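Hey, can you fold this one?
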Amino acid sequence: MKFDSLKLFILVLVGYCLTPWNAFAWEHFGFEGDFEVVYDENVFEFSDSDQDEFDAGTNPNRFKDIESMDDFIFIPDVSADIHGEVIPESQSALGFRFVPKFHVENEERDYQKYKAYITHRLDRGDRFKLFYTRIPEYFVRNLLDFDLPEGTNRFRKAEFAYDSPGVDFLKIINDRISAKIGYSYEEKDYNREFDERDLSIHLVFGEIILKLCERLKIRGKYEFETAEADAQDDDPAVDFDTSHDQHAWTAKAAYEFLKTYWVDLRYSFYLRNYTTDNSATDDPFHAGRDDYSHLVSVGLSKEVNEHVECYVRYEYEVRNSDVDAASVGTLFDPAGAILEFDTNRVMVGSEIRF
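Sure. Predicted structure:
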């Protein structure tokens, strides 16, 4: 599915650009650039006990290639597109976006994200968008490979490739209200040692955008994803099953003051339920597990001119996990603590648009 969906998107893209009525329709180019520096005090999202173990140096195999718990991340985000009246009475855009992330300490965590998209914007401002996103390689961390015999080093590097075609539609209801809906199909293809973690994900979302006045904007968004894991590899033993359903709610507000300054607030809540039928004995990390995550952020931005904006933002994220302590036994002490994490992040950046 991953290769087929990418091939289909490329064929649509090439055909769209080469059709006779598109050949001379493109009128001008657009460019956007965003350079951001992030400090993340828990870049791998380790629990408190994990961090204590890292500091003590008692399990080097688990933390191989991990240089520090915190890190600075440099993120240049560049996109370019071409615009034109490809379809009568509408504006079209064909664009590409490239987002690499560079870590100062943990270079194994570096990755690149590529995105291609086609948009059509109608007279009223309604917009239809078709896109494809790919991350060739993303390092998660070193995980236990239970297929290996006890008494050996059972930690192996876990990484995946990510592919996601999707579509969304923005509807301008009136001058103050607009709404967006969308769907994406996502695949995470893990390395051979963790084939059982391969995921196929369906995600849908709805968002409402309110412009209460010239200075105040509010957004509300709901997302639902359902993910099915392969949950099997080449051996007959029962494998971990990371299949899950997840609900996510996000509220955002932005307020303008002193003409060119904006302050923004965000709160997100995520509820993930692992849907495996495995027993807690066979799959103690996922059987009967529910995760509750909260994310809170506050930011301040300054519009330097019509092309440039600078910003600073603070973010706090925490995840709590519920597992069946009686079934799990002494694996978790206290139950679920090894699955939980929290982190503080600070972002500073600037955006340029032409």
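The mean pLDDT is 87. Let me know if you want another pass with a different chain boundary.
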